[in-house]
Amino acid sequence: MSTTEQPQPNANKALWEKGDFTRIAATMRASGESLVGSLGITEGLDVLDLGCGDGTTAIPEARLGANVLGVDIAENLVAAGNDRVRDLGLGNIRFQVGDASQLSELADDSFDLVVSIFGAMFAPRPFDVAREAVRVTRPGGRIVMGNWIPNDPTLVAQILRISAAYSPPPPEGFVSPMTWGVDDTVIERFGAAGVPADRVSLERDTYTFDYEGTPSQLLALFREYYGPTMNAYAAAAASGREADLQAELEALFNEQNTSTDPGTTSIPATFLRVTVAV
Ligand SMILES: C[S@@+](CC[C@H](N)C(=O)[O-])C[C@H]1O[C@@H](n2cnc3c(N)ncnc32)[C@H](O)[C@@H]1O
User: pTM of the entire structure?
Assistant: First the structure.
C-alpha cells in the first residue's frame, strides 16, 4: 500500500456490527440448543464455533463440557458473547474477533469439531473459508455447517431474495453467501480444500424462529436490528419503495407463521446441514 492509500473499510464486518444481531439471535436459542444436542459433544472436546455471534450454539456446546472458542468478525457480538459467558459463570468458553476466511491466529489441527451455523457462509472468499476450516480441524475431526438455501421458500431465503430486489446490485466479483446452500458448490469448495466428496454429507434441516409477539413485531425487530434487512430498508427508502418492501415482508412473515397463539410467532426455516469428515 502506498502512503496515500487508505485501508479499505471491511463491508463484511460493518454489515454485522450494524444494528444488534443479539436481538434476532434471542429468537433462535431453542433451535441452536437442539442442533448442538445432536452433535455428539462430549466432555473435553475442542470446539471452534465460527461466526459464533453471541453464542447461540457456542454456549450450549460449552454447557455439554466442550472447550469452546467462538470466533466472529463483529466486535459487538464477541463482546455480547463474552458478557453472556461471564453472566453464566462458564470457564470453558471464550469469544474472540477473527475472520473465517483467514484464521492465521489459529494453529493447524487445533479442534475436534468446527461448527458454523449461518456464520462462515457470510464470510468473503468461500474457498478460503473451506480451506481454513479444514486446516484447523484435526484429522478424524468434523466440520458442521448450517447454510441457508437459495430460492428456498422458507423465511430467511425469502427475506434475502426480497431484500435483494430492493437493493443496488452487489459489487463485481461478490459471491453470494447463499451459494453455500448449493450441494455441488459445497462439495466443490471442500474438494478444493482436500476433502473428497464421499466425506461430505448434506441434509435438509429446520431452524425455528420463536418470538413472544406478532409476526409484524418480529419483522420490526429485523427492520431495526438485522444488518441485511436494515440495508434493504435504507435502499428501498432511497428509491421511494419502502412501503412496497414493508408490504412484501409483512406478507412473508404472516404467511410463514405457524403459531396458533395470536400473540406469539413461530416460523420454521429450512437450511442445508453440511457435515464434513476431515
Ligand atoms: C446470522 S449470524 C449467526 C450467528 C450465530 N452463528 C448464531 O447462530 O446466532 C452471522 C454471523 O456470522 C458472522 N460473520 C460474518 N462474516 C464473518 C467472517 N468473515 N468471519 C467470522 N464471522 C463472520 C457475523 O458477525 C454474525 O455473527
Answer: 0.95
